[in-house]
Amino acid sequence: MPLQKVKPTSPGRRSLVKVVNPALHKGGPVDALTVAKKRGSGRNNNGHITMRHKGGGHKHHIRIVDFRRNKDGIAAKVERLEYDPNRSAHLALLLYADGERRYIIAPRGVTVGMPLASGAEAAIKPGNCLPLRNIPVGTTIHCIELQPGKGAQLARSAGAAVQLLAREGSYAQLRLRSGEIRKVHVDCRATIGEVGNEEHNLRSIGKAGANRWRGIRPTVRGICMNPVDHPMGGRGNGGGGRHHPMSPWGTPAKGFKTRSNKRTDSMIVRRRHAAKG
């Protein structure tokens, strides 16, 4: 997937860098595997803004992605690769031997016509889905379940990958891209390999309007506001400031720990910040 820098025919195209993948399907998605997406534009049922900087954007449908990969023992092949406007990764359309079609996250290196499988007896090759108990230690994996049968929740974005470090009893230890080491039950499933479209982070949007196409509205810095609108607003905060960086509601924005899920604290072997220290 080469990076393409377009001719600077306008200021917006001067800094535009696109990721071009000629193998992607040129047509639309499978209608039976799409549902309509209602745009809330960051509003709740009363019409009040609950999430800033959202609104507008191009209309598109949600692709129904098979994160469970529970068709064990049924051969499948990659029918085509598709673009998905709802995520950074691409999708692979699988055609099973019984005629059913399902979308999965397209792994790196998977091409059209390649056979894939799922289940404990599947081969260790990119795109196949197996329980963690059947995957060799040291393997690079993605699309990992946190609870058996719930569906993949970890490592689903473009270029994401996790390494299987060890297995101890009923749990496997995984090293995430953040440096965190986490325990996951060995009956949880994972897909071999890395997520494709790994050059996604090298693209350049090029102009502000391209973000508006994606439903992202402008962000105004708090230091540019008045004191009544933001804790960091006003002239008195301009030369270094009275406040540390914070949200409009006073929550610190840098270095403030927001994790409060004590139920799963025991599953984290090493925190992600420990690896950077």
Task: Compile the SSE list and pairings.
Blueprint: E1 3-5, H1 11-14, E2 17-19, E3 34-36, E4 61-63, E5 76-82, E6 91-96, E7 101-105, E8 115-116, E9 129-131, E10 140-142, E11 144-145, E12 152-154, E13 162-168, E14 171-175, E15 181-185, E16 189-192, H2 208-213, E17 268-270, H3 272-276
Antiparallel strand pairs: 1-2, 3-4, 5-6, 5-8, 6-7, 9-16, 10-13, 10-16, 11-12, 13-14, 14-15, 15-17
Concise synopsis of the structure shown:
Helix content is 5%, strand content 24%. It is mainly beta.
- Give the overall silhouette: globular
Helix content: under 10%
Count every beta strand, where a strand is a DSSP E run of 2 or more residues: 17
State the assembly state of the protein chains: single chain
Extract low-pLDDT stretches. none
Element-level helix/strand string: EHEEEEEEEEEEEEEEEHEH
The neighbouring-strand order within the major sheet is 9-16-10-13-14-15-17
In whole angstroms, the N-to-C terminal distance is 35 Å
Secondary-structure class:
mainly beta
Tally of separate helices:
3
What is the C-alpha radius of gyration, as a whole number of Å? 22 Å
Overall mean pLDDT stands at 92
User: How can the largest sheet be summarized?
Assistant: 7 strands, antiparallel
Strand content: 15-25%
